[in-house]
Each structure stands twice: as C-alpha cells, then as structure tokens.
Design goal:
Blueprint (H helix, E strand, L loop, with lengths): L2 E5 L2 E3 L5 E8 L8 E6 L8 E6 L6 E3 L7 E6 L4 E6 L8 E7 L4 E2 L3 E5 L2
Length: 116
C-alpha cells in the first residue's frame, strides 16, 4: 500500500525557515516524480501546487508564489522528498502535502503557521 508521511511543520515567525519532509513507502520511490502542494486560507479548499522534482532530482520547478524562497529536493536512498522554505510569510500559512499524481497518492499533510 502506498503511503506518504509529511513532517517538519510548525509555528515560525515571519522571515523564518522550515524544512518539510515527506517519506514514502509502498512503491519504488526513485521511479516517480514528486510534488508539494498546499492548502491556505486564502485559497479555500484548493490545492495549490508549489514545487515539483523529477525522477533522479535533476530537474525541479518552483511555482511563482514561492519562487526564490522555497526549494525542493529528494534523497532516493531515504525515500524522502524535502521542501526547504525560507523567508516565510504570513500568507504561507497552511497545510502542506506531498503528492504523487500518477499513483493518486497524498499524505496527511503537515501544518505550517507563520505568525509573530
């Protein structure tokens, strides 16, 4: 059974940093690209895609809303994809999920709260 488990969220002040992790099991992780999405109060129930990493980690894409502040990476030896978030803003508050679209897999999410 496919499982994705996110961790690393928490409460941080504006301008701070967090690193989210998503650990996968139940499939051959190295053969699949991975994504981070988020659900923020400003977007309601919409899942906003913010980052993508290719198989092997050679290519990444960061969406405009977080470009220059967030980076995505993966460690296939650990079956884990990361989201490094720097210069966090109040509007980054929300629940963050990793997703593998081909497998229709999504974790339970990890909450990020940016507040002074």
């Amino acid at each position: 059974e496919v499982h994705l488990v996110e961790s690393g969220g928490g409460l941080v002040q504006p301008g701070g940093s967090l690193r989210l992790s998503c650990t996968a099991s139940g499939f051959t992780f190295r053969n699949y690209d991975m994504n981070w999405v988020r659900q923020t109060p400003g977007n309601g129930l919409e899942l906003e895609r913010i980052a993508w990493v290719s198989v092997g980690g050679t290519k990444t894409n960061i969406w405009d809303s977080v470009k220059g502040r967030f980076t995505i990476s993966r460690d296939d030896a650990k079956n884990t994809v990361y989201l490094q978030m720097n210069d966090l803003k109040v509007e980054d508050t929300g629940k963050y999920y990793c997703i593998q679209y081909t497998l229709s897999a999504r974790g339970q999410g990890t909450q990020v709260t940016v507040s002074s």
